[in-house]
Structure formats: C-alpha cells, structure tokens
Specification:
The complex is a heterodimer.
Chain A (H helix, E strand, L loop, with lengths): L1 H15 L2 H29 L5 E6 L15 E6 L2 H9 L5 E5 L7 E5 L5 H22 L4 H7 L17 H35 L2 H6 L4 H39 L2 H13 L4 H14 L2 H29 L7 H22 L6 H6 L6 H8 L6 H29 L9 H9 L2
Parallel strand pairs in A: 1-2, 1-3
Antiparallel strand pairs in A: 3-4
Chain B lengths: L3 E12 L2 E12 L3 E5 L6 H8 L7 E6 L2 E2 L8 E4 L11 H11 L4 H14 L15 H13 L5 E5 L7 H16 L3 E6 L2 H7 L2 E6 L2 E7 H7 L4 E6 L11 E7 L5 E6 L5 H11 L2 E6 L4 H9 L5
Parallel strand pairs in B: 3-8, 3-9, 6-7, 7-8
Antiparallel strand pairs in B: 1-2, 1-4, 4-5, 9-10, 11-13, 11-14, 12-13
The chains are: A mainly alpha, B alpha/beta.
C-alpha cells in the first residue's frame, strides 16, 4: 500500500506540474465556452438576418388574391411580366420567382439563379400553403381569428407517480452531459496511462522500478494517480467555468443591446424567454442532485478504473505508441457503442430493455447508467450496476496485472492477442 | 554461512521453449566483488532478475544473509540494469528522491542522500535539470547513484562500464572500490574480462544456462595455468629433452630469441638446466592464462 501511494503521488505531482496540464486546465473552460458561445452566436445570427430575401410572385390566375406573403426572411412582390422578372433574377436584383400555374394554386414552379436549399424550398412551400389555407378558410366563411380561437394551446406538465414534475428535458441534458464527461475522461486519461506505461517500458525504467515494487503496485499506483489528475482537472474546470459564467453574466447582463437582441429572438419562439427560464428552473428543481452526484462519481471512477486497467495492459504489451492502434479499437468499441445507445435509445426511453441491459453491462454502464441516473432509476438498480462494474474492474485489473507483469519486461516481440493470452495464462 | 551474503542453491528457470538457468548454485562471499561472467544470452540477466525478485525461480532457492529472499530485502539490494532507464522529463534530484523512496527511504533521508551522492559524482550543479538535458555520461552516473543511494548491502551492477568515457570509468571504479571498502558486496555482471581481473575477488562463469566454473579469481587462474613457459635467451636454444615442445618462436625488441615452451611433464628445473647448458637465460616465466583466455577456452564451441 505504501508503494502504491508513493507511485500515486509521483504520477500525480509529475503530471499536474506539467505545463501542458496547467495550460489545458486553464484553457479548457475557455475552449468549451468558445465552442458553445459560437453555437449560440451562429443561431442568433440566423434569427437576425439583416435583410429579407427578395422574391417575385407571378400569379396570372390570381390564386393568392394579391395577399402579401412577406415575413422576416422573405419579401414578396407580385409581378405581371414573367420575362422581366427572370432578367431581374439573372442580374440578382431579386433572388427568385414563384410561378403559380393554376387558380387553385397547387401547381407551382420556383425559379432561381442558383440551386436552392432544401430548407428554403420547404419554407417557401409552407408559406404559400399556409396562405392558401387561410384564403380557403375565408372562402368557406371562416376567419383566421376564429380559427386561432378554436386552436388550443396546451400546456402539458408531466408528473410521474413517484412524485414531482418529470423535467424530462433537463434530465436528459444533465445525464447526457455527465455521460459525455465520463466518456471524454476515460479516453483522455486512459490513453495517458497507456502512454505512460509504454514510455516506462521503452525507457527501461520499469526494470529498476519492478526490482523495488511489484508490477501490480506500479500499475495500480499509476492508474489511481492519473485518476486523481483527471479528477483535479475536472474539478478545476467546473470551478473555472462557474467563475467564467459568473463574470460573463455580469458583463453581458449590463449591456442593453444584448438584452434587446435576446428579447427579439424570444419573439420568434413559441413562448417567451421568461417562461422558458421559469420552466428550466422548475425542471432543475426536479433533479435529485445527491443521487446524480453520487452516481456520477461512482460511475466516473468505476468506468475510468476499468478502462484504465485495459489501457495499461495494452501499453505494457506494445513496444511503441504506433502499435497500440489495433488494440485500442476493440477496447474502445463498447464505450463508443454505449454513447451511441445513450444518444439514440436511452434519451428516447430511459426505461427500455436495451437501456436497462446496457446500464448493467460493465463496459457500457458508466456511460449509459449516467444518462439514466436523473430519471426514476431505483437505488437497487444503480447498486447492482455499480457492483457489477467494480466487480469486473477487480477481475480486469487482475488480468491486466498478469499481462502487464510480463509485458513490461518483454521487448522486441510483436504484440498479439495470442501472446497476451499466453501471458495471462502464465503462472 | 557467516561469510556468505548471497547463496543461490540449485536454481533453475524454464521458459516455454528454452531453459534459462539449469541447476545453478553460487555463493557470494560478504564484502567481495563477485564477477558474474558469461557470453550474451547465457542466463546472467535471468539470474539477476531472480535475485531482484523481478521473476521467480522455478526450482531452487535464494538466500540473502541466511534468510530466504523476500520483499523486505528490496531495501538491501541495489540494482544497475544493463538497459539504462530514467524519466527523461523529470529533474535529476526529484528522480533520485523517488527511486530512493521506492527502496524504503523516507523523503528526508532521500533528499539528503541524493545531495551527498550528486556532490560525490560531480553532478550537484545539474540537480535541477531534466535528464534529457544532460550528456550521456552524466545520465549514466545518475543511473549509478540510483542503484547505490539507499546504501544497499548487495549491489548488483550489470555492465556498469558500458557508455562511460575513460575518465568517468575511472571515477566509477574508484566509487566501486570505496563501496567495497565500506563493506558492500558487489555482484558484477559483465563480459569484459580485463575489468574482472582488475576488480573481482571471486567469480562464476555461466554458459548455456549452466554454471561451468566458480571460485576466487586466483584459484581459477591457478587451476587453468598450463605448463606453458616463456623464455628469452641471449642465443639460440634447441631442446635436448624430447618431451619439451616449442609452441611459438619470436624475437624480442632487443633482438633476443623468445620461445614459448610446452614442458609436457618435464620439471621446471630440468628445463632450465637444459636451457642454461646451451645459452644464457634472460627471462623465464610460467604463462598464466588471463580470465579472458579461460573464458574463450571454455565457451568456444569446439572445446565443449
């Protein structure tokens, strides 16, 4: 135990004091912030396009009754001369022209200079269909206002029997972010362990170390040390992100322009901003935070330790980083699979059979169970999954230790599964 | 037993398709520099790894100081592997402290000893540099410090001189002799025979997984001395005793004839008389084989 602690300390201090670690720890939140910031910026710029696209409508049969179709994105004008309009399209004075072929309006042609995107095509089609629908209603003696008053705007608030509102969106969001974090850290730091093992092997340091400590102690010390590094970085990122968010909200909250812009976007949305933030707050209250936090830590560590042991075994079997690729793929497959399952199945139905089993299988459970955690998953289920995960970890560590023990002292052989199996079976 | 620090009894080690060590027994006397000789692949490294508890013997036992080898002995053993290895990106002093602590020293002791040794090896000025910034020779010296920093009673040196320039090799020799004088037992594995004669008190020769020879250096040389004699005379000499053979003929720098004689059972005095009857004797010496000669004689295939 003393030796494991010594190695843990050594690994931790060495890695935490590296320049690259400090830089990544400081830049991480900024990069993540920049990433999401740019997404928000792009979506804002989409909503607030400066000028509407100019379109002509040639409607010789008067299907649209000269009604104005213009909205935020498109500005329409009726033309009598189709040929003149085509010239305007060529000279790019206008973007395109809708030609309505009959009085019913169900046969149209869209002329543009360049090919048009699917979404623009769809939007134009819907604009005309909408207008035609309203005209038809009018023709049948109904007004738009009357129709609108007949339409019901339903506010659906969902509750499960175990109490509280469901808050499905925020639960999926929190679960998914947690799973992403686990996935990312397993890869980042698992590979770090693998590199470390290969480095020690290549530098032949390992012979000196294993003459002083048992290979298993070296492996465990390394895995735990790097796990602590990962946790440190994670906590640092959370803290820094929190601070950054605080600074940003103070800085931007004071700017009138931005508030106006956000309110503007709000108008475009079905419900206003205040309502949304209210809902988010309500949903947030539905989260069982202690359960999620405990679960996160358990599955973060469990998953990390399990995969680290595998990565350490790979690192010990190969002579160089380039050789690791062929082993990396099968080892990382289950984890990638877990994330895909999390995206497509679990978020749709966290209680499905597939979701259940994937959160029990130890190689996918760190990711899948994390996504399910915010939902009504019983403690028993979580406990069983955790026990399986840690049980498998012990087994894998034992196996990895056997491969590692021989692998680190074997040079010049091309690593293969057969070879690793042989090492595993060696007394 | 009292005089034996390391006792290896009938140790064998088998790998799947080959025998690495076969029934090897060695006794390393306390305070000796013990040469472990053998050609490449003879099994020296396997034996050293067994003593270091990196691998276990399949058969036989290893006793250190009269006790079966166990984990507590790690503190008493120092090891300089043939393949050198240090963390490239870690500072010299931190590296030494880490390895010393792995060998059971407290952090304070480790720092103190590391400082002492860095000064002794003329490396104190580079203590805060990373290994990769140092010259090869400096790295080798640091590697040596790693093996001795915890004052082991048994120091295992596997080819310690490889990669050293003559000046540093001399410094290393001195340090090894100082350690010996302080009571350290040294197991010195090499295939450089000339250094064995210079340093070792006793030795063992391992060849094809088996120990084929051991004893003190003097004993071994005595055992292998042949009845070859070298004589230098002022005039020509032709043996009148039939048994005496001339193996080699040459002329010294001074122009005197020099002969290598094989006596084949004829006594030294009889031979001398025969020489003196014919001419004046300038030099007469028995040819003592060097360890190198013995080594080559024993491991060259046609002699087996």
């Amino acid at each position: 135990m003393h030796n494991i602690l010594l190695i843990l300390k050594h690994e931790y201090i060495t890695r935490v004091s590296k320049k690259s670690f400090i830089i990544m720890t400081l830049l991480g939140p900024l990069l993540i912030g920049a990433f999401y910031g740019s997404i928000v910026a792009i979506s804002i710029s989409q909503f607030s396009k400066d000028s509407a696209t100019k379109m002509a409508i040639y409607d010789p049969n008067n299907a649209l009754k000269n009604e104005d179709l213009s909205n935020k994105s498109y500005q329409f004008g009726y033309v009598k001369n189709a040929e003149a309009a085509k010239d305007s399209i060529r000279s790019e004075a206008i973007y395109g022209m809708l030609v309505i072929h009959n009085s019913k309006g169900d046969s149209m042609e869209l002329l543009t200079k360049k090919n048009i995107s699917i979404s623009a095509r769809q939007e134009l089609k819907e604009l005309v269909a909408d207008k035609l629908f309203n005209l038809n209603l009018k023709a049948n003696g109904l007004t738009k206002n009357k129709i609108d008053s007949l339409k019901m705007d339903i506010h659906l608030s969902d509750h499960s029997l175990s109490g509280g509102s469901n808050g499905t969106e925020i639960k999926s969001g929190v679960g998914y972010v947690g799973a992403m974090v686990i996935y990312m850290f397993i890869f980042l730091y698992g590979v770090m362990i693998m590199r470390g093992v290969t480095e020690e092997k290549n530098n032949r340091i390992v012979e000196i170390i294993v003459s002083a400590v048992k290979p298993f102690q070296l492996m465990m010390g390394k895995i735990l040390g790097v796990a602590m590094v990962g946790l440190t970085q994670f906590i640092a990122w959370i803290t820094l992100s929190g601070l950054l968010l605080l600074v940003l909200s103070i800085a931007f909250g004071a700017q009138q322009v931005d508030t106006a812009q956000i309110a503007n976007i709000g108008k475009q949305m079905p419900s206003n901003a205040a309502q949304i933030s209210g809902e988010i707050f309500q949903q947030f209250q539905t989260l069982n935070l202690p359960k999620i936090l405990i679960g996160f830590v358990v599955f973060f560590f469990g998953g990390f330790l399990l995969y680290s042991a595998l990565f350490a075994a790979i690192g010990s079997a190969v002579d160089s980083d380039t050789e690791t690729q062929q082993f990396m793929f099968p080892v990382s497959m289950p984890l990638v699979f877990g994330l895909v399952i999390a995206q497509i199945a679990v978020i749709n139905d966290p209680y499905s059979t597939l979701a259940y089993w994937c959160s029990m299988v130890p190689f996918t459970s760190p990711v899948v169970m994390m996504v399910r955690l915010p939902f009504d998953i019983s403690w028993t289920e979580i406990l069983i999954s955790a026990v399986i995960l840690f049980g498998t970890f012990v087994l894998v560590v034992w196996m990895a230790g056997k491969i590692y023990r021989i692998g680190i002292l074997s040079y010049g052989q091309k690593a293969s599964y057969k070879q690793m199996f042989k090492w595993l079976m060696t007394k | 037993m009292q005089n034996t620090l390391l006792q290896i009894n009938n140790v064998s080690k088998f790998y799947k398709d080959k025998v690495a060590l076969k029934d090897v027994s060695i006794a390393v006397p306390k305070g000796h520099i013990y040469g472990l000789l053998g050609p490449n692949g003879a099994g020296k490294t396997t034996l050293i790894r067994i003593i270091n508890q990196i691998t276990e013997a399949d058969e036989g036992s290893v006793m250190l100081n009269g006790e079966p080898l166990n984990q507590t002995h790690i503190r008493n053993i120092g090891y300089l592997p043939e393949e050198r290895g240090l963390y490239k990106k870690i500072k010299v002093i931190r590296q030494l402290e880490y390895f010393a602590q792995l060998r059971g020293m407290t952090s304070k002791e480790a720092t103190q000893k590391a400082t002492e040794w860095l000064k002794a090896m003329e490396l104190y000025d580079v203590r805060n540099k990373k290994i990769e910034e140092l010259s090869k020779g400096m790295q080798q010296k640091i590697q040596f410090i790693v093996s001795v920093i915890h004052s082991p009673s048994l120091l295992i040196l596997d080819e310690p001189f490889s990669g050293f320039d003559p000046v540093n090799a001399e410094l290393l020799t001195q340090k090894i002799l100082e350690l010996k004088a302080a009571g350290t037992t040294i197991l010195y594995s090499t295939h450089r025979m000339e250094s064995v004669e210079k340093l070792c008190d006793s030795m063992a020769l391992i060849h094809q997984a088996e120990k084929i020879l051991d004893g003190t250096v003097a004993e071994i040389k005595n055992k292998f001395k042949s009845d070859l004699f070298e004589i230098v005379t002022s005039g020509n000499y032709a043996p009148s005793i039939g048994a005496i053979e001339i193996m080699q003929q040459s002329t010294t720098d001074a122009g005197h004839p020099s002969l290598l004689l094989k006596l084949n059972g004829v006594s030294n005095n009889a031979c001398l008389k025969d020489v003196m009857n014919q001419t004046e004797l300038i030099h007469f010496s028995q040819k003592i084989p060097s360890i190198n000669d013995i080594f080559i004689q024993l491991v060259t295939p046609h002699n087996n």
